[in-house]
Amino acid sequence: MNPTTSVVVCAYTERRWDDLCAAVASVTAQLLPNDECLVVIDHHDGLLDRARRELTGPQVRVLANTADRGLSGARNTGVAGSRGELVCFLDDDATASPGWLAGIRAAFDDPDVAGAGSAIRPHWPTGARPAWFPPEFDWVVGCTYRGLPTRPADVRNVIGAGMAFRREVFDLAGGFSAVVGRVGTAPTGCEETELCIRIRQAKPSLRIRYLPQYEVRHRVSPDRLTTGYFLRRCLGEGQSKARVARLVGQDAGLSSERSYVSRVLPRALLRDLGRGLRGEAAGWRGAALIVAGLAGAGFGYLGGRLTARRAAGAPG
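-> structure tokens emitted (316 positions)
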């Protein structure tokens, strides 16, 4: 028997209204009779009123975030208000491809699977990847990046734009931490990373599955295709990783990042340097961004660790 499923879509701005409607439509087309879609509005009265007028339907409910402002609080509100045995999450600027929900649901036939996530494919503004944007850094725009498994595999954590968890893991490990996570447009995150680590720390036999054969399409807005945003996002990622490491321990918090830095990025740098030497200007820009992105994340991490030590009263 299929487990009942609640899909939570969190929203914070009317600027994404069309995206939000598309996200909800992509979910409701895949719901089974006892499933539901919850739209959680993050402290925006105007958007809340509009969503309640225009989005509520037989399998759609609109809730106001009753926790702290931010994505973690909104997701926790969705968990608390949901009824399903599985709780899925889809970003408000993403759409679920056909079969996504059924594929995610099937992963939980294994009783040891506590969480699962799909591939997140970028939907670029022009329809094509910018030649200068390194695919190893697609996480900058909230998408699956080169270096992740290409076949179904156990992973440390899934990407938040398209993921699901058993309801009981929130009782086991708690909800999303407000210490990490995005608030509005702040270029931070990692709340799903911290939760996935905490789940396995609470019960090591549990597994987190990555399912690249299923996908959601994540819209990349033009403002995210600037060097400034790229560097701010890398800096924010480093700061977020510092917070995760403080919450769950440095070894667990950086286990995947070590392999990424030591294996994935050197290959990416050599590739783009080679492109540059062959006369492709985009190759030089890509190589520069790889170096700058790594440096930015490193500075963000060190700064975050220093801030945490000072806040705790430890010597700097």
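The beta strands are 5-11, 36-41, 60-64, 86-91, 94-96, 113-123, 153-154, 162-166, 207-219.
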